[in-house]
Amino acid sequence: MTDNDYENKLNLAIAQIDLIIGGLKVNSDKAIEVIKDASKKDIDLLVFPELSITGYPPEDLLLRNDFYEATEKEVDRVCQAVTGNLTAIISFPHKTENGIFNAAAVVKDQKIQHYYYKQLLPNYSVFDEKRYFIKGEKPCVFNIKGINIGLNICEDIWFPNGPVVMSKEAGAEIIVSVNASPFCIDKAEVRKSILKERALEVNLPVVYAHNVGAQDELVFDGGSMAVNSKGNVAAVAKFFEEDLLCMDVIRQNGKVEIIKQELPKQNSDEELVYKAIIKGLRTYIINSGFEKVVLGLSGGIDSALTLALAVAALGAENVEAVILPSEFTSEESIESAKLVADNFGVAHSTISIDKIFNTAFNELSPVLGLDKNNIDLTVQNLQARSRAIILMAISNKKGSLLLTTGNKSEMAVGYATLYGDMAGSYAPIKDLFKNKVYRISKYINKRANQELIPNSIIQREPTAELAPNQKDSDHLPAYDVLDGILKRYVEYDQGANEIIAAGYEKSTVLKVIDLVDKNEYKRRQAAPGVRISQKAFGRDRRYPITSKFNDSVFGDL
């Protein structure tokens, strides 16, 4: 069909860009570059993500007056780039006499023609928008080339009988939503479902403009999309990459629709998690001003996976591994660690911790009565802290950021040494339960079509090797059991009774819950890491460090 076969036709594009929190000039420069490119492609409407000038979430930068002054300058600079037939939607925090709004602006002819203020402000999980913003109350509908467009922002489209309905009642024929929606497993499918619900609710197509990038623990996965009025996906952008997703919005027989494109192949959960961690790690390192990382390589699965992810994120030349054996470290562990480093092309060295450990042990023995025939927790932790001394010295001297290698199962129950193996600046696999660690490791091998992470490591029984013949199973339930309980308690907020009713042994459930609660103080001091689950340890799970709640609950069990 030709353009003459349509009553109206609008060329719409989503600018799925990688944003930096507070990087006002960088973000604006990127927006201006995309605007210039869009003008050459005869795009009529260019849509940027939520808070595209400041990045999302700016957090307490929103409490600074100078932040708004700088933001206003960049907004004006971006507006000056919008010329000719192009209309752009940009987004930023807008400080007014009435308060601060999470705003989107329709820009045409170098001027803001319309404002839309976000109406539904999320204040749960990782979101704190009511801390900063006041809610808008009015719809924003504007016309381009004879098509009425209703503008919404992120949370506005997540609930029925809300701003989307208000937009239609104000005359909208298509909904455009600008978004910043943090990644977690299944999030893309959830978004797709929500878009279908809204489209069917108002019988209108919905365009979802999303960002890509990372901020501290949060990752934004891209995957901008559009659905038609029946809720069927019409266009999808790339995941974890910047993209310019172009689509044709047409009116035919009086009805506005989006012409369906060929859709990309769907990503597996493992691929999405892999890409999310790489994106989060790379962004954190670069935005922190570092170029290289160092990590301790034990010969176990956690450090092997951490090394693999670091190489994928930064390149082997920017990763250094240090093998730190003690008298309890097996030859198998040492050889496995060397093999992993060699497989990934990473420079590595071996430094024994024995001298540091023995010095500390000998100095402390008269005071604490330490005994090498009784390798208690204090002696085990001395080993972990001896390793931390070496790794932090290398980090300081070489300017490399130290990665920690702990997983979510360990962090949940405190199976880690504070100021020992927890020492470091970033924890790439912090939100992976142990069983997910194995799955991602196997995925990496499958992806590479070779055994980069040796099967001998994957199949080996986990051990901290801080005492003779030590196994994780000496202290913890089997990981299948542990992870099942943790997922219910930590991510689903289920209580002991509910978990026991699901088939888990009562004594095991109570032990695991007790460990989780007692080790909150450790997690508060842990390095940040990539969030990939619906509830990670960090900004979206905020429990008291000290609490007696479960003492009351357990008394009734």
Mind explaining what this structure looks like?
The chain has 557 residues and is of the alpha/beta class. It folds into two domains: 3-267, Carbon-nitrogen hydrolase (Nitrilase/N-carbamoyl-D-aminoacid amidohydrolase), CATH 3.60.110; 271-472, 3-Layer(aba) Sandwich (Rossmann fold), CATH 3.40.50. 38% of the residues lie in helices and 18% in strands. The chain contains 17 helices and 19 strands. The strands form four sheets. Strands 5-4-3-2-1-14-15 form a seven-stranded mixed sheet, with helices on one face. Strands 6-7-8-9-12-13 form a six-stranded mixed sheet, with helices on one face. A four-stranded parallel sheet has the order 18-17-16-19, with helices on both faces. Helix 3 (163-169) links the parallel strand 7 and strand 8 (174-178). Helix 1 (24-40) runs parallel beside helix 2 (65-81). The model has no long low-confidence stretch (mean pLDDT 94).
The major β-sheet equals: 7 strands, mixed
Strand content: 15-25%
How do the strands line up in the largest sheet?
5-4-3-2-1-14-15
Question: Which CATH class of the largest domain?
Answer: Alpha Beta
Shape: elongated
CATH architecture of the largest domain: 4-Layer Sandwich
Structural class: alpha/beta
CATH topology (level 3) name of the largest domain: Nitrilase/N-carbamoyl-D-aminoacid amidohydrolase
Number of domains: 2
In CATH, what is the homologous superfamily of the largest domain? Carbon-nitrogen hydrolase
Q: Which radius of gyration do the C-alpha atoms yield? A: 26 Å
By DSSP (H or I, 4+ residues per run), the number of helices equals 17
Mean pLDDT: 94
Quaternary state of this entry equals single chain
Please report the total strand number as a whole number.
19
Low-confidence stretches: none
* Terminal-residue CA separation: 70 Å
Helix content: 25-40%
